[in-house]
Amino acid sequence: MTTEQITGAQALVRALENVGVDTVFGIPGGAILPAYDPIFDSRKLRHILVRHEQGAGHAAQGYAMATGKVGVCMATSGPGATNLVTAISDAYMDSVPIVAITGQVASSLIGTDGFQEADIAGITMPITKHNFLVTKAEDIARTIAEAFHIAGTGRPGPVLVDIAKDALQATVGFTWPVQLQLPGYRPVTRPHSKQVREAARLIVEADRPVLYVGGGVLKAGASAELKVLAELTGAPVVTTLMAKGALPDSHPLQMGMPGMHGAVGAVGALQRSDLLVALGARFDDRVTGKLDGFAPHAKVVHADIDPAEISKNRHADVPIVGDAREVIADLIVAIQNEHAAGHTGDYEEWWRQLNAWRDTYPLGYDTPSDGSLSPQYVIERIGKLAGPDAYYVAGVGQHQMWAAQFIKYERPGAFLNSGGAGTMGYAVPAAMGAKVGAPGTQVWAIDGDGCFQMTNQELATCAIEGIPVKVAVINNGNLGMVRQWQTLFYDGRYSNTNLHAAKRIPDFVKLAEAYGCVGLRCDRAEDVDAVIAKAMEINDAPVVIDFVVHQDAMVWPMVAAGTTNDDIKIARDMAPDWENGD
C-alpha cells in the first residue's frame, strides 16, 4: 500500500471515485470551493450543476432510487447546507440512501458565527442516519468510506459529511483502501428462526390473514420472494404508497394500496383481518388512521430491519428483526414445512368477502359535467401510453394520490414519490436524478401546479445537461389537496389556495420554453393522447405539458384525519357497506 501526498480536497474526490460514485449533484461556494478544483480534473465524476441545493438533494434521491446506489449531493456552508435540509429530511423519512457533502468554515472559525457558518451537523442530527464533522484532512477518505457504508447498509438513509475548509486545503498522505472505524454499527439482517417459525404457524392457522407490505420490501430487493410467499400462502396483499410495484398491480392476490386514500378492498382487508404480516412497513398514520381503531381483531407479525420500528406504533405479537428479503425467504421455507406437515390455511370465505369489496368498490372517477379535463383521466392515459417500463415521479398532493391510484405498476421501483415527508417540489429534481441514473428509460414527472413552482428551475439544469425528462403539470389552479380539505372541513372557505392560473401567472408553456424545454398545453380530453404521444416522440429536450384540469376534482376514497379506517368515504356523503359489500 503506497501513500501519496495530496490535498484533503483531492482525497475527497479520490475517495468518492473509489467508492464508485459517478454523479454528484451540487453547487459550489466558498467553503466547499477547494473540492471543486479536483472535481474539474476528475475523469470519473460527472458533476451536475443544479440551480438550488434542494434540487441537488432530491436529484440524489431520484438517482439512488433508480439505480440502487447511494446518491450524492454537495453544497457549501451556511445557506448552501441548510438548503439541503428538506431533501435530507425527505430521504430520512423514506429510507433513501444519499450522502450529502457540505463545506464548513475553517475549523478555527467554528462556533464563532463566522461568515456563512451553520451547525449543519447539529441541524441535521434528527434527520440523518448518521453525520460527521471532519476537521482533519487525514480523516476525509475514511469518513467518506464510512458514510457510504452506513447510508447503503441496514435500513438505508441519508448521511451528512461536513468538512472544514482548512481540512480540504491541507496536505495529507492518501492511501486506499481504508479501514472503517465503526465498532458499534452492526445491522441485523438474518432473522431469528424461532420467530419465523412462529409467524408461519400463525399464517396457516389464521382465517383472515393479510400481507401488509411496505417500502422495506423494495429496499431489500425482495419483490420476487414476496410473489413466491403470496402465491404459496394464497393470502391477500396490500402494498403501501412506498411499496407500489412490489407485487404487480395486475396480480390476482393484489388488493391495492391501503390508507387515507387507499382502495376500499385494501382498507377493508386490514380492518377485518385476524392476522397482519407486516413486511418492511412501519404502521404509518396515513395507513392506520386513528391507531386504536386500526385492525382491531388482528394479531401482528412485524418484520423490519430497523428494531426501532418494531412495536413503535402497534404491538407486535411476533417481532422479527431482519432484512425483508431474508425474512421472506426463511418464511417461505417455514410455510413449506407447515404445508408438508399437513397444515394449510383455508381462506375461501375470506376471499369471498375480499372479492365482494373489490368488485363493488373499484377505484374510479367522475368526468366533469362542464366538459373540462379530468385530472385522473390525464394521469391514467400517461400510465397507459408510457407503459410499465417507465419511471413515474410524483410531487405531493392530489396528483400524487391519483398517480398511485390510476397508473398500474407492474415492476418494483417504477413509482418514486415523497411519502413520509410529503415534500412539495420533489418531482422535477427527483425525476432529473432518476433520468441521470436510468438514461435509457422514459421518466415522467407527474406534478401539480403548486409543487411545480417550487423547484421548476431545475428544468434549466435538465436542458443544459441533456436530461430529457417529461413533466406533466396537473394544473387545477389551486393547492388542490388543501382546497379539498377546505371543501370538506372548512365550509368551502378557500383561504389562500387559489394560485390564479386563469391569469396564466406564470404561463407554463412560455416558462418551459424560457428554460430551453418544449412547452405544450392540453385542456380537452380528445387531445390528451395526441399530446402525450407528441411528448414521447421528443427525446432530445425536456418536455413540459400544461394539463389544464377541473379545479374541483377530489381524491376518493378518503379516510379523514383523526378517524378510523372504518369511516372511509367513497364519495362526499357515501360510505361502503362493510358487511354486505354492496
Tell me about this structure:
By secondary structure, the protein is α/β, with parallel strands linked by helices. It folds into 3 domains: 4-174, Thiamin diphosphate (ThDP)-binding fold, Pyr/PP domains (Rossmann fold, 3-Layer(aba) Sandwich); 193-360, TPP-binding domain (Rossmann fold, 3-Layer(aba) Sandwich); 375-548, Rossmann fold, CATH 3.40.50.970. The chain has 23 helices and 20 strands. A 6-stranded parallel beta sheet has the order 3-2-4-5-7-6, with helices on both faces. α17 links the parallel β15 (391-394) and β16 (415-417). α1 (8-18) packs parallel to α7 (140-152), α3 packs parallel to α5 (85-93) and α9 packs across α14. The longest helix is centred in the middle third of the chain and has 17 residues, at 324-340. The chain is globular and about 75 Å long. The termini are far apart. 57% of the residues are buried. The mean pLDDT is 97. This is Acetolactate synthase. Residues 7-121 form the Thiamine pyrophosphate enzyme N-terminal TPP-binding domain.
The fraction of residues assigned to DSSP E strands is 15-25%
Cα radius of gyration in angstroms: 25 Å
Under the CATH scheme, the architecture of the largest domain is: 3-Layer(aba) Sandwich
Poorly predicted regions are none
Q: Just give the CATH class of the largest domain.
A: Alpha Beta
Q: Distance between termini?
A: 73 Å
Mean pLDDT: 97
Number of helices: 23
Describe the strand arrangement of the main beta sheet, using strand numbers.
3-2-4-5-7-6
- The proportion of residues forming helix, as a percent range, comes to 25-40%
Query: How many structural domains can be distinguished in the coordinates?
Result: 3
Q: Largest sheet, described in full?
A: 6 strands, parallel
Which outline best applies? globular
Named CATH topology of the largest domain: Rossmann fold
Give the tally of β-strands: 20
